[in-house]
Amino acid sequence: MVWCDADGRNVKHIAIIDELKKYTSMGGKIYVGADSMYRNTKCVFACTIALHDAKQKIAKYYFKKERDNTNKYKDLAVKINKEVDLAVSTAIQIRDEIPNCDIEIHVDIGKKKKNTTKFLVNQIRGWVTGLGFVCCIKPNSWASSDIADWHTK
After folding, report:
1. Which of 32, 110, 120, 143 might form a disulfide with 115, Cβ 3.0–4.6 angstroms?
2. Which residue, 132, 65, 133, 126, is CA-closest to 105?
3. For residue 112, what are the contacts with CB-CB under 8 A and spacing of at least 6?
4. At what angle do helices 76-97 and 121-130 cross, to 10 degrees?
């Protein structure tokens, strides 16, 4: 998968890491999220790396997309676990290259009665926090619920 900027232009991994190093050295937090859209045995996954810091006057993001043409993602738990795996893998790679950076993982699940994903909240939160990341769920998971969601369409 190729990383792109918000305008859809390809961006080299090293260029993103260089920007993240500068951003985090100024105290910026990195937000990583993923979402997916399943339609007719095809699932589109999008993963995002977002930078948002009012002091630095920065609000930008990068995304990558992946398509899977199998029907295994009809199962909601399988689909959500794949989303989280994409976000976690991205966050681990960033942390490996920028130790001690502040990363928050946003997951498109919620614990309200109306959320069909509420049965996954404890499992997913344990997975993400067990790896040393902050885990945000709906309504605070904007990197997945808003940005990544936009790129699954």
Report:
1. 110
2. 133
3. 118, 138
4. 20
